[in-house]
Amino acid sequence: MNIRECDQSDFSNIYTIINSAAEKYHGTIPDTLWREPYMPEDYLKNELANGVHFFGIEEKGELIAVMGVQDKDDVVLIRHSYVLPEHQRKGCGSLLLSHHLKTSTKPVLVGCLAAMDWAIRFYEKHGFSLVSESQRDELRAAYWTYHDEHVKNSVVLADQRWWAQHQRLSA
């Protein structure tokens, strides 16, 4: 498995990976947040235009997993993390996350829907911790733009760098 930066030529593969992996959400997340496809092409194009940078895992010349990150002022947001269903539970997500955490010099935040308990457990296993509801609301207002329905159904997890920085600022 090889981790590499994605470029414009990977657009259709990124789109396919995201929407194939997101099928797991159907019936799990609130119906008001489900759409078909989960991430339309225009939305993905907008994400790229707004500075979301993807890197991925390639195996035998095929892109099988992607992570989209966005540099936002004093933090980096993990905006998207998806693995093709047939490659899930084989360490791809851990490999991508570890790579990102090693290369990032800023605190890292990730937002996900509260119903995605498997994602929350994944990030907690890798040293992230849930922030309080009030912290979530402050962070969402500062770094994300989502509609109210998404915000009320979501959580934010922070890495150890964010917690260390937050404790210094609170002291």
Average pLDDT rating: 93
CATH fold label:
Aminopeptidase
Major beta sheet summary? 7 strands, mixed
Q: Considering DSSP H and I runs of 4 or more, what fraction of the residues is helical?
A: 40-55%
Q: Could you tell me how far the N terminus lies from the C terminus, measured between alpha carbons in angstroms?
A: 43 Å
Quickly name the level 1 CATH class: Alpha Beta
What's the SSE pattern?
EHHEEEHEHEHHEH
Oligomer: single chain
Strand ordering within the main sheet: 1-2-3-4-5-7-6
The total count of strands amounts to: 7
Count of discrete domains: 1
**What is the global morphology?**
globular
Name the beta content range. 25-35%
CATH architecture term: 3-Layer(aba) Sandwich
* Unreliable sequence segments: none
Describe the structure.
The protein has about 170 residues and is an alpha+beta fold. The chain contains 7 helices and 7 strands; from the N terminus they run E-H-H-E-E-E-H-E-H-E-H-H-E-H. The longest helix has 12 residues. The mean pLDDT is about 95. A hairpin with a 2-residue loop joins strand 3 and strand 4. Helices cover about 40% and strands about 25% of the residues. It has a single domain, classed as 3-Layer(aba) Sandwich (Aminopeptidase). The chain has a 7-stranded mixed sheet with strand order 1-2-3-4-5-7-6, with helices on both faces. It is globular, with a radius of gyration of 16 Å.
